[in-house]
Write a structure and sequence with these properties.
Radius of gyration: 20 Å
Oligomer: single chain
Distance between the termini: 34 Å
Strand content: 25-35%
Shape: globular
Order of helices and strands: HEEHEHEHHEEEEEEEE
Number of domains: 2
Mean pLDDT: 86
CATH topology of the largest domain: TIM Barrel
Helix content: 10-25%
Length: 222
């Protein structure tokens, strides 16, 4: 399908989404052919963030792909998404009763989701016909103002179970940890060339570790 549409017909403006199911890893076409990976989740009345699914998907594809709830019955409550750091790029409730019956999604929840600043609705999207591509990394002020490439320290393991070790050839002043939403979740003084940072209590997902408000390294809490 990819070869026919892209190489034969020359359609280069397509976004390719792979929606996985359990035990279908052998069917994955490969990173070169997939832009976004998704998951179908139908848990009636469950408005949790599906953080375990998010973490599993992020680990499975090496943190290199945007993640989506390709289809869902009862969609996540935005408060749970923010609390758990489950940054799904979108969620798509199925049609029929899933959008009409309050036992799946209440009217109040629909209104809450569409009105929340965290959720982008169609009216807030830019005009993609005139949208200017931004190749230069832009980060919020006070988050990390320098690109993550070539950091002058190491942080391991990249898949953190409990503790993260941070090591540098220079003296470390402060270690800061941010979640994927850019919120500071932990900060501690070091005073040497090595520091141990506890990730206990952190929700599964992607975090950024920054030394002395300079370069950052991405790690994943399992």
């Amino acid at each position: 399908m990819y070869d026919r549409m892209v190489n034969y017909h020359g359609l280069t403006n397509l976004i390719w989404v792979w929606t996985r199911e359990p035990n279908d890893d052998a069917w994955y076409p490969g990173d070169a052919y997939v832009d976004i990976v998704g998951r179908d989740v139908y848990k009636d009345g469950d408005h949790g963030s599906q953080a375990l699914e998010f973490s599993d998907m992020n680990n499975r594809y090496g943190g290199k792909k945007m993640l989506a709830l390709s289809e869902t019955g009862s969609f996540p409550d935005v408060d749970n998404l923010l609390k758990d750091g489950a940054a799904w790029s979108w969620f798509m409730p199925w049609y029929g009763a899933y959008t009409e019956d309050s036992k799946y999604n209440s009217l109040d929840l629909w209104k809450k989701m569409f009105a929340h600043d965290y959720v982008i609705t169609l009216d807030e999207m830019p005009d993609l016909r005139t949208y200017a591509r931004q190749d230069t990394l832009q980060e919020p002020t006070g988050f990390w103002n320098e690109p993550a490439e070539n950091p002058d320290f190491s942080a391991y393991p990249t898949l953190v179970a409990k503790d993260l070790t941070v090591s540098s050839e220079r003296r470390i002043g402060t270690v800061s940890v941010y979640n994927i939403l850019g919120a500071l979740v932990r900060q501690q003084k070091a005073g040497g060339t090595k520091a141990i940072v506890s990730f206990a209590g952190f929700a599964p997902g992607v975090y950024l570790v920054r030394l002395d408000q300079k370069h950052a390294i991405k790690v994943i809490k399992e």
